[in-house]
Design a protein that fits this description.
Distance between the termini: 92 Å
Structural class: mainly alpha
Shape: elongated
Oligomer: single chain
Strand content: under 5%
Number of helices: 12
Order of helices and strands: HHHHHHHHHHHH
Radius of gyration: 24 Å
């Protein structure tokens, strides 16, 4: 009997300490003391007894999400974004109802902040012609967007704007593999609209033209002409290929 009472007492003390740690992190976040909140949540989850605490993992995601929006921490923003996303996933895996409740109370802002801060960071890097920095930022933002869509919280299966700028960053950083992948996502989905969206079709047609891959070249020339019948580049590329043959 004494052992049972002692076990219950120990459990109560552990839960009490955990609750106090959670409150401390929340208070630090409320005061915008992000660095101190990071230290507190890392220490809390460093204790094996807290590893299965869904709320603690949610708070870690929330803290690291706040860090991604801090201009002073832009150098580690992509890393922090990945850590935050992983923490939100763990919280949901441990207790989906609790994670959903906490997100609802926060109006999903901590998760959406990962997306908006990432897109803004990537845009800033792209506009500054830092293409090799912009590409991984767009990639990490895309992973967040895929998660948000997969959970049914909004966004689109194909984020055309993000994918388009990911393609441009790939092209400008001479990353052919990624450029082909992102352009293919847009072209294979028959994305149209503004004339700037003719770029993926042009890039793919020229890419396969250079590789002497007539089937794929004509695939994207025809797809591009269907979306942009007034485009001048695609018919000229086709004419050049016919002349060479």
């Amino acid at each position: 009997m004494k052992k049972s009472i002692l076990a219950v007492l120990v459990l109560f003390l552990v839960q009490l300490a955990s609750a106090q740690d959670v409150k401390k992190v929340k208070d630090l976040l409320a005061q915008n003391k992000t660095a101190e909140a990071k230290t507190a949540i890392d220490q809390m989850l460093g204790n094996p007894k807290n590893q299965k605490n869904a709320e603690a993992w949610y708070l870690k995601g929330k803290v690291y999400s706040a860090m991604t929006a801090d201009p002073a921490l832009v150098a580690t923003a992509n890393e922090n974004r990945a850590i935050a996303l992983d923490a939100f996933k763990k919280a949901s895996e441990m207790d989906k109802n609790m994670a959903a409740t906490l997100l609802t109370l926060d109006q999903y802002q901590p998760v959406y902040n990962l997306y908006t801060s990432g897109f803004q960071q990537g845009a800033n890097e792209y506009n500054a012609e830092k293409y090799t920095e912009a590409l991984p930022t767009f990639k990490s933002t895309g992973q967040v967007g895929d998660y948000i869509f997969g959970q049914g919280w909004g966004l689109y299966k194909l984020d055309t704007t993000l994918t388009y700028y990911s393609a441009l960053a790939s092209m400008n950083s001479k990353n052919t593999e990624d450029a082909v992948a992102y352009c293919s996502k847009l072209a294979d989905a028959n994305v149209g609209g503004g004339t700037e969206f003719a770029t993926p079709y042009r890039y793919l047609a020229k890419h396969y033209y250079d590789k002497k891959d007539e089937a794929n070249m004509m695939k994207y020339i025809n797809a591009g002409k269907a979306q942009f019948p007034k485009d001048e580049y695609l018919p000229l590329l086709e004419l050049d290929y016919v002349r060479e043959k």
